[in-house]
Amino acid sequence: MKALVQIQNSTLALRRPEEGKRQPAKDDRVAVRAFESLERRVIAALETYSNVHRGTGHHSLVTTELYERARDIVLDTLGLDKARYIVIFCTPRQAETFTAQLKPADYEMISTREIGLPLGLRAIAAKKRALPKGTPFQTGGSVVKSVTPDSVIWADAPQRYEAGTPSVINAITFAIALRIRGEIGTDCFRPLGGAESSAAEILRQDELEGCSGAELLSELRQQLVGRDLHVPTSDGEQPFLNLDNAASTPTFVPVWNVVSKIWRQSEKVQVEIVNEVKKVLADFLGASLKQYETIFASNTTEALNIASRFIHNEYGDDSECVIVNSLLEHNSNELPWRYMRGASLVRLSVDDEGFVNIDELEGLLRRYNREGNCGRKRIRVVAISGASNVLGTFNDIKTIGRIAHKYDARLLVDGAQVVAHHSVNMDESGIDYLALSGHKVYAPFGSGALVVKRSLVCIGCPELDKIRASGEENIVGIAALGKAITLLQRVGMDAIRESERSLVRRLLKGLSGIRGIEIFGIGDPDSRRICQKGGVVSFIFRCLPHNLVAKELSEQGGIGVRNGCFCAHLLVRHLLNVGAAGALAANAGFILLPRLTRLFLPGLVRVSLGLENDDNDVDRLIGVLEKISGARVSFINRLLAFNRNGSPFIPSTGVQGKMEEYLKTRVQKVFSLHPA
Q: Would you call 423 helix, strand, or coil by DSSP?
């Protein structure tokens, strides 16, 4: 509980009046009370923050329940029937695009701006019967059930309209604030007199100011929000262990303290924060302010959709523009190009360890752009992931950039999985566009960014102003992103890489000694290419379905991981040799028996390490996996595992009831205004 005490002391210190200053006026006292209530509950949500919807551990269950409960609170606030309406959380720009497809009588909307919180969120309560059909207004992660090279099965509402990892904490904060307003009063969230600080002070100063390098990394591990929070398992209560950082990262006390300060600041300071964070990102990414523009978005998916809009506007519907990506890509760097009008998509192959074929790339560029062997078609953009979210491999971005520019193409990098793990220099690597998410860099407050060369911002001023204003309304997310980046800089990317590499070697060595495990990608801890691998390791048990492995890790060890396809369906199906017939059967299943089909789908188990993890975490994981490997497995589950499928035959255990009680307790702590 050390970290929680530090959080409470720090946030209370922000409110302590200085000697000789006047005591707060009545309106300020109301605001202090509102902010204190809000903070206690948001801290409780952050203690269990994990990936929403798709994770398997205790904390993913809690976060998912909190997020879905937030929708209900919005409907209650608006007095709408849950049977007829559904809530979609959007950025301001997404909300404008979405509601343009609805009749005014078919929806109601409330914004975080209306209640005085700079969260950049809209809650749209839409009639279920009025929801638009066809391709979602924004494509990428989360909006699909299944993707093949030639087809897409879209997700059901509301996920269909919330592309990428949504602004989960901001939505939960929104719902908490709505309940507090209902009790205290509608004008309870307002800037507090005497609380103003400069943007530089907010971002640069913290209680760890004198620490850097390995020392700071060690301190941050102690200041993880929710550290040592115990969860029920089959072996009694154990500290929860998050090994799902590739999906979404938790946060640290210094980042949270910035958030709690920002709520209290004047609009003037909030504007300063936006400009200061742009400077932080420019320095961190080697992207000079003179040459590059930073456009804030909700996540990597929205940033990539903005980039696709720029590229489409530049080349037009009839330009015969070709985009090159690879089999490694997350759906967020696949679907925007697939659905870009007037463009075609070519995918690079990958080798068994998860690296793209550089020679193949150069051959394509030569054929299209120099020799003219493909008619009027020209490769305009190479859109590649900085690191694979399935195999953890780092692409050689500098070489790819050099080759792309040699043949008059541009380089776009999906940086979601790389910026928190490996140094990036946009100018030196020839990166023209880079997209990133705060929730992958320990700032899960709904902000990301597209960093793009100014000459490539191809859009009219009115629309560009709307895009900028939409992203910059989420001051909380921008400030958290800026603070998290400053901490990464102070730790140093070399120190982070060395720590991660050591943990990966330890993990691979431990996995190699467990019977029945098959590792995908680099599996040899002594491989010469291990330096090109981040902290992501994916595997399967040959005799146990992937969803049962994840369940056992949670119930036996209190360990949260991911299983399935990780929004990288093309790569996972390639790794598991799922052919066209299997993909067709899955698509048919999603139409006829969607719930059962989801359980049967082939998939992997993924472990992804973060700053908070150490040798003890790896050893604990290996110990639980060794126990799982020796367990008895039914014939049907062995058969399903042999075919790399998941299983609907999930045995019930006594731990599930305790997990449900844990879930209820945590939800009550966040949303009850008068907890028992």
A: coil
Tokens for 364, please give them: 């394509």
Q: Which of 612, 613, 587, 614 is nearest to 600 (CA)?
A: 587
Q: What is the spatial distance between Cα 325 and Cα 341, in angstroms, rounded to a whole number?
A: 17
397 phi and psi angles, rounded to 5 deg: -65, -35
3-state SS, one letter per residue, for 316-346: CCCCCEEEEEECCCCHHHCHHHHCCCCEEEE
Tokens of 345: 């998509």
Tell me, rounded to whole angstroms, the distance of Cα 164 from its chain centroid. 7
Reported confidence tier of residue 22, pLDDT bands at 50, 70, 90: very low
CATH code for the part of the protein at 256-490: 3.40.640.10
Q: What is the pLDDT of residues 378-418, one digit of tens each?
A: 999 999 999 999 999 999 999 999 999 999 999 999 999 99
Q: How many CB atoms lie within 10 A of CB 342?
A: 12
Q: What gap in Å lies between CA 61 and CA 68, rounded to an integer?
A: 11
Q: What is d(CA 434, CA 386) in angstroms, rounded to the nearest whole number?
A: 9
- Write the DSSP symbol of residue 155: P
Q: Cα dihedral angle (85, 89, 93, 96), rounded to 10 degrees? A: 10
Which secondary structure element, helix H or strand E, spans residue 28, and what is its range?
Answer: helix 26-47
CB-CB contact of 118 with 475 (8 Å):
yes
Q: Tell me the two tokens of residue 403.
A: 């080759």
Residue type, 183: E
Query: Do 135 and 33 meet the contact criterion of CB atoms below 8 Å apart?
Result: no
Q: Which residue has the tokens 């005591």?
A: 23
Q: How many CB atoms lie within 10 A of CB 82?
A: 13
Return the C-alpha torsion angle 578, 581, 587, 588, nearest 10.
-140
Q: What global pTM score does this model have?
A: 0.94
On whether the CB atoms of residues 217 and 254 are closer than 8 A, the answer is no
Residue 448: both structure tokens together: 């990301």
Strand partners, 645: 602
Structure tokens at 594: 């969607």
User: Cβ atoms within 10 A of the Cβ of 552, count?
Assistant: 22
CA distance 393 to 534: 6
pLDDT of residue 27: 64
The C-alpha atoms of residue 52 and residue 42 are separated, in whole angstroms, by 16
Tell me the one-letter amino acid at 250: P
Containing 413, the helix (H) or strand (E) segment is: strand 410-414
Given this model, what pLDDT does residue 190 score?
79
Distance CA 531, CA 230 (A): 34
